[in-house]
Amino acid sequence: MTRQDRDALNMTLIAISCGLLMLLPLVTTFDELLTSWALQLGVNNPLQAIVPGEARMVVGLLGLVGIQAAASGSHIVVWDAAGSMHTLFISWNCIGWQSLLLLGLSLLSGLRGSQSLESRAQVIVIGVAGTMLLNLVRVAAVAALEATWGHLPALMFHDYGGTVITVAWLFAFWAMANRFVLRQPEPQAA
């Protein structure tokens, strides 16, 4: 990737993050509108089928940090230090389709150069896997906040923190990809 391509990608990410941060309340509200439309159209059903598996993975992550949790279908139950139970519902809209969409947009911008096919494929695999892991950690963080600090901090993190973390992940991802993964194709010998 050339210096000009890197600069263009960084400017794209900065513009996206500035726009998201300025419009965070609007984005959250618009997301709710999209969610209601998707529910009416039945688009949520295929994605909701993914949620029970994700809920079990989140419970596993919570167990790694010592938070007692259990999953049942699309619900996660976490216990606080006093032994009180908190039930959280994970909808298809919480599994991170927004961050995958942002990753896709950044891939369109970041893979415009003349990188090798192998390095492009590696960047896509790392980006998708990292974004999916980020989404699991984000959902686990919401549950951990619910169990430790209560509902309001968990809700604030759910509504706003996820966007900030996603943007930070994209910056870190592209810095790593540009430094270690993306390579120009080998010139063909004549």
Determine the strand fraction and express it as a percent band: 5-15%
* H/E element sequence: HHHHEEEHHH
Q: Enumerate how many helices there are, as a single number.
A: 7
What is the straight-line distance between the termini? Answer: 23 Å
Number of domains: 1
Mean pLDDT: 86
Please state the overall shape, judged from the principal axes of the Cα atoms.
elongated
Low-confidence regions? none
Task: Kindly name the structural category.
Answer: mainly alpha
Strands, count: 3
What is the helix content?
A: over 70%
Give the spatial strand order of the biggest sheet.
1-2-3
Overview features:
single chain, 190 residues, 3 strands, mainly alpha
What does this structure look like?
It is a single chain. The protein is mostly helical and 190 residues long. It has one domain (3-47, 94-181). 71% of the residues lie in helices and 7% in strands. It has seven helices and three strands, in the order ααααβββααα. The protein has helices spanning 3-22, 24-41, 44-48, 51-64, 97-110, 117-148, 151-181; strands spanning 69-72, 75-79, 85-89. It has a three-stranded antiparallel beta sheet. Strand 2 (75-79) and strand 3 (85-89) form a beta hairpin. Helix 6 packs antiparallel against helix 7 (151-181). The longest helix is centred in the last third of the chain and has 32 residues, at 117-148. The chain starts with a helix and ends in a 9-residue tail after the last helix.
SSE layout and pairing:
Layout lengths: L2 H20 L1 H18 L2 H5 L2 H14 L4 E4 L2 E5 L5 E5 L7 H14 L6 H32 L2 H31 L9
Antiparallel strand pairs: 1-2, 2-3
